[in-house]
Amino acid sequence: MEDGFVGLRHILTIVFLSGFAGLMVAPVITDVTVAAVCSGPDDSCSLAVYLTGFQQVAIGLGTMVMMPVIGNLSDRYGIKAILTLPMCLSILPPVILGYRRDTNFFYLYYIIKILTALVCEGAVDCLAFAYVAENIHDRTRISAFSILGGTKTISALCGTLVARFLPIALIFQVSAISFLVGLVYMRVFLKERLNNDDDGEDHHHQDDHNSNDITMLAEPILNDTTIKRVVFIKKQSSLKDMISLMKTSTIFVQVLVVTFFSSFSDSGMQSAFLYFLKARFGFDKNQFADLMMLITIVGSITQLFILPRFASVIGERKLLSTGLLMEVINMAIVSISWAPWVPYLITTVFIPGAIIVTPSACGIASRQVGPGEQGKVQGCISGVKSFGKVVAPFVFSPLTALFLSKDAPFYFPGFSLLCIALSSMIGFLQSLMIKDVPDPPLNKEINNILSEEV
């Protein structure tokens, strides 16, 4: 593997520890929620569904604002400094449920989780993508993104294995410890920029890297170093940065549209999928863990071994469209599941689709700017993803609760999953409109727009 990729080992370790800690609780939180807030053993308890949906909305609203801010701050003050706060706050929620999980402590966890997630949710992933984009050249960036995503998937696999065999109380305790270890590791080992030992060398490397990347970028928005310096001196707000990026690149706007519908569908899955399986087939913690293990095994193989080999040959846009189409087929079939084995088989077969969407979208977006603005770009993408997470629960939480209840207008427990498939279809159609190679006159037009704004 190339030296640049080897240099990413510390950020990959941080992503692994953070993902391991966060995803470990996913198989058990549904059972914990139902046990804490539902009066009886009714697996389709509507209150649990609505609480999950409200949590998604609250967190989504916060992160929609915070992720562009965090990305912008990382460009100014460094990724390592900005990453410290979310990794500190992430420790608090699992500590609460690791101590007790009765109704009162669950609601305490619920409130603390929402407050801390305003800063923590998606921050590690956002800054990790920005770190990779700053340190890896454009031509190999999609492979690096894939390896980063594969590391996150491996962390999910390990976390799911732990959740499968450990008692619930220990799961939350191990999660808190893993967050703490990740924080300490990050502060000790992570370098702000690879292959640089001091600020002078770092600045010189940044200039060289910028000049090299300018010739490689297919559609650089800020491809003039003078303009970039003026932008940093002005220190525009995150909102202005986001609007400026959207004005200067059609491709970037298209990527944001695809990202929204992909996030909208993924958030809908969080509101619907596990509760559908629990109500329809009586799934419990162990079955959730088994399903997630199958998904993560296939996903990690795809991201670590298959996607890096073929990404540069196939192209990011084709990968993006393929992934979205696989998501459509996956949810459409799962929505009509007639036996418990159907979600296992179909989700496992089509999960590579969901796996490759984010690296492909981030890869396309990262090529629209130079290395000095990667935090802004990844922050914008994370903000749009958060917006999708805000909107989705308003649609899918009531829809899921309705069609899993006895008052459904017609019998179709997976109707909300079918609607999720239709949402992914919109993202797929938009992805087909993204050009593989931008028109040559675009760079000149972008520079003129930026010059007028500056």
Automatic annotation (TrEMBL):
Native organism taxonomy: Eukaryota, Viridiplantae, Streptophyta, Embryophyta, Tracheophyta
One GO cellular component, as annotated: membrane
Subcellular location per the Swiss-Prot or TrEMBL entry: Membrane
Membrane topology: Multi-pass membrane protein
Cross-referenced Pfam families: MFS_1
Ranges that cross the membrane: 12-35, 47-70, 77-96, 108-132, 144-162, 168-186, 251-276, 288-307, 344-365, 410-429
Organism: Eutrema salsugineum
GO terms, molecular function: transmembrane transporter activity
Major facilitator superfamily (MFS) profile domain segment(s): 11-439
Protein name listed in UniProt: Major facilitator superfamily (MFS) profile domain-containing protein
Organism superkingdom: Eukaryota
Keywords, alphabetical: Membrane, Transmembrane, Transmembrane helix, Transport
